[in-house]
Amino acid sequence: MPRPIQAHIDLSALECNLQVVRRASSARIMAVIKANAYGHGLLRAAEALNEAEGFALLDIRDAICLRDAGFSQTILLLEGFFTPDDLPLVAEYDLACVIHTQQQIDMLEAYPKRRSLEAWLKVSSGMNRLGFAPDKFSAALQILKKHPAVRDITLMTHFAHADESTGVAAQLNMFNELAAPYRMARSLANSAALLRYPATHADWVRPGIMLYGASPFVENSSQQLGLRPVMTLQSRIIAVQELSPGEGIGYGGLFRAESPMRVGVVACGYADGYPRHAPTGTPVLVEGQRTRTLGRISMDMLTVDLSALPAADVGSSVTLWGEGLPVEQVAHAAGTISYELLCALTERVPIVTV
Ligand SMILES: *Cc1c(COP(=O)(O)O)cnc(C)c1O
């Protein structure tokens, strides 16, 4: 028997979450499948999301893989191309590119085909990560409009605070002002903006995390948003220890029993992608019952409190996150976000699609 850990990927939940986007917005959907579809598997996710009008990712090899698998939607490279060597492939596979810096415009001289590149011109409206500064934006746009390689231009920006109380107003106003003179398609919204600010929907929305069934907000659960978890990380108890008062458990003996207690050892550790920094008290389900982790997470194992679960024993099922335990709750307890946990799932965890 292999080790009992598995990640279940619920493809019907992925389809349902896409319908949540459909109901929320009439814009075209650019499904974000970067980072191996947030850890869910690139092609597997793309197939379930096939109804989306586009896919956004980072790696040109992944984009080519999608084309080779027969996907004919718009495929957008979110960081565009990196060197002139990328351009023949961009042309051959008809990949849309985010253009965010003057160096990329300079490289476009090497583009092999006239009027065939779909450019997504990015303005940095407050994030200050990728994109032309507002005072450089219209000059960049004029160059692209006249550029022989460019067929079509979409204007885009990305929000820094869509999931927080700061909101999108300042960035939205700046973007709208910059884009106002031009009749071009626009794209602004990530999951948080899509759910909270209909004024950002424009022509293309770019949902990521919500497709995978996690909430982008601290205050709203995925359930409240009508989202279904797609990934459920499951394992089993492989040993039970009886601790006496004062005995510690795991490396560093970080947790010490105050009274006699039963502890379950679960086949899941940081080498599977479970966060090592999850403290004592991080929620976990044993046979569907909520309990907590104890002490330090090891490479291959973690320990859970069975004090209130006398029936639990070797072989009992454990849910680390997913169905019955929203990943954002585990992330919150561990001081991180659901995105990081989902992406961190490692190669050695077998995937089972359900
Ligand atoms: C990752 C990403 C998204 C999706 O963000 P979510 O918060 O996962 O919805 C949208 N747009 C861009 C530019 C991104 O990099």
TrEMBL record:
Lineage: superkingdom: Bacteria
Residues reported in the UniProt entry to bind substrate: R129, M299
Cofactor: pyridoxal 5'-phosphate
Keyword Isomerase attributed: yes
Active site, per annotation: K34 (proton acceptor), Y251 (proton acceptor)
Keyword check for Isomerase: yes
Broad enzyme group: isomerase
Gene Ontology MF: a single term: alanine racemase activity
SUPFAM superfamilies (UniProt xref): Alanine racemase C-terminal domain-like, PLP-binding barrel
Chain ranges passing through the membrane: none
Domain annotation Alanine racemase C-terminal: ranges: 230-354
InterPro entries listed in its UniProt record: Ala_racemase, Ala_racemase/Decarboxylase_C, Ala_racemase_C, Ala_racemase_N, Ala_racemase_pyridoxalP-BS, PLP-binding_barrel
Record Pfam families: Ala_racemase_C (PF00842), Ala_racemase_N (PF01168)
Pathway: Amino-acid biosynthesis; D-alanine biosynthesis; D-alanine from L-alanine: step 1/1
Catalytic activity field: L-alanine = D-alanine
Annotated EC: 5.1.1.1
Residue numbers of N6-(pyridoxal phosphate)lysine PTMs: K34
Keywords, alphabetical: Isomerase, Pyridoxal phosphate
Matches recorded under HAMAP family: Ala_racemase (MF_01201)
Function: Catalyzes the interconversion of L-alanine and D-alanine. May also act on other amino acids.
Annotated NCBIfam families: alr
Similarity comment text for this entry: Belongs to the alanine racemase family.
Protein's UniProt name: Alanine racemase
Organism: Candidatus Nitrotoga arctica
Lineage: Bacteria, Pseudomonadati, Pseudomonadota, Betaproteobacteria, Nitrosomonadales
